[in-house]
Amino acid sequence: MRALLKTLFAVAVIASAPVAAQEGYANTGMSLDGIGKSYMGREIAAVMGFQGAEWLDRADRAKEEGTDKLLPLLGLMPTDVVADIGAGTGYFSFRISPLVPQGKVFAVDIQKEMLEIIDARKTKSHITNVVTVQSSIADPLLPANSVDLMLLVDVYHEFSLPREMGQAMVRALKPGGRIALVEYRAEDTDVPIKTVHKMTEAQARKEMAAVGLTWVSTDSKSLPRQHLMIFRKAP
Ligand SMILES: C[S@@+](CC[C@H](N)C(=O)[O-])C[C@H]1O[C@@H](n2cnc3c(N)ncnc32)[C@H](O)[C@@H]1O
Known about the structure:
- It is a single chain.
- It is globular, with a radius of gyration of 16 Å.
- It starts with a helix and ends with a strand.
- The chain is 25% helix and 29% strand.
- The protein contains eight helices and 13 strands.
- The chain is α/β, with parallel strands linked by helices.
- The chain has helices at 2-8, 53-56, 61-65, 67-70, 93-96, 112-125, 162-172, 201-209, and strands spanning 10-11, 25-27, 34-39, 42-45, 47-48, 81-85, 104-109, 130-134, 147-153, 173-185, 198-199, 214-219, 226-232.
- The strands form three sheets. Strands 6, 7, 8, 9, 10, 11, 12 and 13 form an eight-stranded mixed β-sheet that branches. A three-stranded antiparallel β-sheet has the order 2-3-4, with no helix packed on it. Strands 1-5 form a two-stranded antiparallel sheet.
- It binds S-adenosylmethionine.
- S-adenosylmethionine (SAM) is lined by residues 47-48, 56, 85-88, 91-92, 108-111, 114, 135, 137, 153-155, 158-159, 165.
């Protein structure tokens, strides 16, 4: 169902890509949920469009994905600057906000319609430490060396330029800063998600290493369907 919804709401955000793609990319046949391109042997998924925004806040999400278990695993400090990359409707941004009262949350997305939803929620709830940022497909457009932790939930596999995004995310991390990558487990056939929307741990580690990040840990047990993989920028 989830994969079907993502297919229905997929958007073509790659059309105006001004970036010269680097190594690792190959053209593939266009599949239902893919964009006709692979990176390091993995087919890239189409971006979920804002038309599917309500689905991100569905009532049974916490039960399906164990979302309440995720944030305590991140070891956040009250002063941390966190970037929720591919924030969507801000599902995680607003849950992180009270955990970093002296810090802030950059809610980053390429779709202005998603950011408008977040801004409306900010206004309604009077939350001031969530800052929306409209990114490009190749760069989160955050200040260099500014972020303690980047959280990417169910988004990395949608990046149309993952190498360029990866390099730009590393630039925006503080030295020693971390990336928390949450992706549906491709190794687990019981996870009811189409292949293009999943990642193996091995593939994720290969792609993060390609942009200079060091693997720290993988937790494949705490969440019902996803890996939580932590990577670090050199101190
Ligand atoms: C499946 S949604 C997940 C949203 C959110 N992380 C959550 O779990 O509720 C993926 C989001 O990533 C965004 N996205 C895709 N590619 C992106 C990129 N290169 N930079 C920033 N956001 C991106 C999409 O616009 C979409 O809002």
